[in-house]
Amino acid sequence: MRKKDTRHTQYEDDFIQRAAERSQQERDKALAQKKAVLAQKKAVLAQSEKRIAELDVIFKRIYEDNISGKLSDDRFIKLSRDYEQEQEQLKAVVETLKKQSFCRIALSLKTNYQFARSFKKSSTSSCVTSPLATASSAV
């Protein structure tokens, strides 16, 4: 009977180890994908913020050109309207990306807290029993 329990324990340990390794590989793959998406969003955010600053400079130049007579009033109005519209769209993109980033950080903190809490609870119990282990020991 003891030999049977030892073999069962060995198979159970092997199963648990393989499942843990597979789970870790899946987590690593998901993390790599998330990092790639995050890097892409950071690049879009940086480009958008840079373009917003460029548009401010451009708007000042066309204003000065309009004042000095190099640019007609009609052309100034058209250009300023186009640049302002582009800048508003970019500001909306930046705001959305920043909100997503804040939500991601908050969710990550919440998940880490919940994991730590559940780990603490499971580590305080003296043993872990599974339906499979309970059923096989009854045989």
Explain briefly what this protein structure is:
The chain is mainly α and 139 residues long. 91% of the residues lie in helices and 0% in strands.
What secondary-structure arrangement, pairings included, does this model have?
Blueprint: H1 2-68, H2 73-124, H3 131-138
Helix pairs in contact: 1-2
Give the key terms.
single chain; 139 residues; mainly alpha; 3 helices; 91% helix; disordered C terminus
The low-pLDDT segments are 124-139
Please state the oligomeric state of the protein chains shown: single chain
Helix and strand element order: HHH
Mean pLDDT rating? 78
Q: Could you say which structural class the secondary elements and strand pairing correspond to?
A: mainly alpha
Total domain units: 1
Number of helices: 3
Biggest β-sheet strands, sense, barrel = none
Distance between the termini: 9 Å
Overall number of strands: 0
Radius of gyration: 30 Å
Shape: rod-shaped
Percent of sequence in beta strands: under 5%
> Percent helix among the residues?
over 70%
Task: Give an overview in words.
The protein is rod-shaped, with a radius of gyration of 30 Å. It has 139 residues and is an all-alpha fold. The chain has 3 helices and no strands. The protein has one domain (10-107). Helix 1 runs antiparallel to helix 2 (73-124). The longest helix is centred in the first third of the chain and has 67 residues, at 2-68. The relative contact order is 0.07.
